[in-house]
Structures are given as structure tokens and as C-alpha cells.
Amino acid sequence: MAVMIIVPIVAFFAAYAVTRVPEPEELVNNQISYILASDNQTELARIVPPEGNRQNVKIEEIPKPVRDAVLAAEDRNFYDNPGFSITGFGRAALGQVFGKSGAGGGSTITQQYVKNALVGDDFSLVRKAKELVISAKMARDWNKDQILQAYLNTIYFGRNAYGIGAASKAYFNKDVKDLTPEEGAILAASIQAPSRLDPWTNRPEAEARWNYVMDGMVTIGAMNQGQRAAAVYPQVQDPALTQQTSVAEGTNGLIKQRVIDELAAAGINEDQVNTGGLKITTTIDPVAQNAAVDQVHQQFASLQQDLLGAVVSVDPKTGGVRAYYGGDDPVGWDHANAGIQTGSTFKIFALAAYLDQGGSIYDTFDSSPIQTGDATVTNVGGESCGRCSAAEALKRSLNTSYIRVEKALQGGPQDVADMAHRLGVATEIPGLGKTLTENGGPPFDGIALGMYPT
User: Fold this and answer.
1) d(CA 440, CA 79)
2) Which of 38, 74, 401, 406 is catalytic?
3) pLDDT tens digits along 137-146
4) Helices (H), 301-437
5) Into how many domains does the chain fold?
6) Where's the Glycosyl transferase family domain (predicted)?
7) Domain membership flag for residue 271
8) Would you call 344 a catalytic residue per the annotation?
9) Set 344, 384, 389, 397: catalytic member
10) Domain span including residue 413
């Protein structure tokens, strides 16, 4: 037992003695990443790290409330801790033993800086041990303000902005010295997940994180309750107005964002994409993609100017997306990834649930008006088949028949929701939350008629 304790301690101090802590500017290593179509040749987007974007600022130039916002978001005991978290290391060790890559967390600002600037973030105890050793030595060799300054000049804030100086320009088009506490909290909130927490594209989640940071500022004594109560969520500027280092035209910019989201889900974060020199091959078929975009433009050419549309073509064998169109603005709202009511298309999920429970497409249903809740459901144009098969009612898109199909299900509307999710309808949508639910409870009967955004 004594050996098990002494050996790691000796190893720690031996590594500590020979470890050198480099300066922040020695550590920049930016590379271009490419997003390619399925032919591995057609370029959809190019992610160019912002050489020269990083604008180092001195700690004195950063308003204290802005610094406090970062501490409230990332490390509330920064000025008191030894530079590392033993409990976080313990969780990572257990995660390594049990194969849980999501274990760990609780890293201090010093550890985050060391991870981002020196040791990387691969999932291993060796990497975590290096992080611990360097963090401990850095906490001894540097004072806390030096560490915080290096961290704030290195961390990624989204919008291709590395360092708080660049982030201040990207989000608010102002020098960092002019940031308000509320604006500082926006930047601090973005550190956790820069693209997902951009207020321009996902205000609900971004504002929830901002509230967490602002409340944290009260907790650490950086703001009083009166200031907190008076705080107003600030506006950020349109990302399109900032310098774009992601080369992507039209809807390819939206494809790029979906790729980044999928990579993040696979454990490859946005910072790695921006600096890793990656070649990312997608399932997008360049022929199908061009055809989809051309078709949208042709169809919309003679229609009203404010009409919105989206196209997603999915390979039914693999689930891979072959073509994707969410709009022509590469940094605008993605209508292909937005929650929109589907209407009568959703009747197929009611039928699928009915068939799954042993029903038949030849079973017949009445098509007369039907009462559900406070509403009387009818068919468009007074259409009716009297009493006809589920298949015929689907062909005619009869609302009344499919309310009755739904009522024949063992679980009613919930069975329709469950079948839709089983067949691939998203369970959550950014900015919308959980889908196919009525305020967190079972859906209403109208789910069979496509009343819920998906």
C-alpha cells in the first residue's frame, strides 16, 4: 500500500522538476480544415483559423467585471485554488477505468489553459497527469493575473475569435476595454460551447447560460442584487458583419455548421476543427446537392419574395444526408434545421403506429367531423369518403379519419410521438427544446395532423 502511494508522489515531483512552462505566444498552431462532399474532392467549406485575429491584451485592459464574469462561468475559486482540481482528476481516472469518455470535468482555468495550449484533450490518464503537473507548476511560477491573462488571450469564444480581444470585436464590434459587465457575461457564457451558445442563432440556451454567469457574479461578490436585477440581456451584432474566416458560400455555410455539430457530438470540439488541419468527408452528394439548390431557386423565382423553404434529401438505406438546403445566407437562420409544423405529412406516423400495433391499412374509419377537446375537426373543403380504409384516408389526407386512427391506438397521441421519434424525428431542436410534447406532457390529438414543430 505504501508503495502504491509513494511511487505516484515521486513520479509527480520528478515530472514537476523537469517540466518547463512555455510562454503563451509560443503555443499558437493554426491550420486550415476542409469540409468535403462524399466524392472526397468537392470542397463545401474551408475553415481558416484567423491568423492575426488573436489580439493579445493586458489584464489591466480587461474591465474587472468582465474578468469576474469569466471566473463566474468557469472557475469561481480561481484566486484561491492551487491551479488544479484533484476531484476532477479523480473523475477522469474513474472514467478511464470504466470507459466513460464524458467523465471528468471541473477543470480550473489553469487546467483549461494548459489543456488548450500545451497537452491537448485526448482521453487518457497520461494526458490528464501531464495537465496536473504543468498546472501545478504554472500556479507556482506565474501569478494568478498572468495565468488569467494568458487564458483570456488563448481561449476560443466562437465566431473564429481566439482571445477576448478578438471576441469583443466579433460579438460587439468594440475594444475589450469598453465592454460592459453584461457583455462580458455574454462572452464568458460562450466559452462552454461557442457555436451552440451564440445568441444570434440560439438565444434561449445562450440567455440561460448568461443568467447562470450573472447569478454567479452575485455569488462571488462581483455584483450586488440591485445591479443583477437591473441587468438587461445585451444585443450582439450579426455574425455576417464580422470578418469571416470560414470560406463557404450560400447554404454550404449552413452545412458547415451541421458538420461542426456532428463532430462535437462525436467528441471533436470546434477548437480542434479550427486548428487541427482536418479533412472532413461528408455524405453530401455534389450532384444531388447542386440539383436541390437549383430546384429551390427555380421554384422560388416566380413566387413572393419573403417565401422560405428548405430541402433535406436522406438516403433511406444509410440515413446519410445527400443534399441539404436551409437558405442562401451562409451564417443566417437554417430553415432546414428549424422547428416547423409538418401538417398532414405527419399522418404517416399515426398510420405506422397503428400498423405496429397489429392494425391493417385495410381497416376502415369514419370520415365525418369529430370532436376532440374543444375543437371540431373537419376535412379541407368538406372532403369525405363516408367510411373508407386507412390507406384511402391517407391518400385523401382526411383529418377526421386519422384522428380516429389515433384514438384507436393503445396510447393515443403519445404512441404517434413515440413512433415518430423511433423513425428519426428529432427528440430535441436547438432553440425549441423537446419535440412532440405539450409543455412537457403528452401531446394533443392534433399531433396526427402535424400541429407540432419538428
Assistant:
1) 41
2) 74
3) 888 888 899 9
4) 347-356, 390-396, 399-407, 413-422
5) 3
6) 44-217
7) yes
8) yes
9) 344
10) 343-449
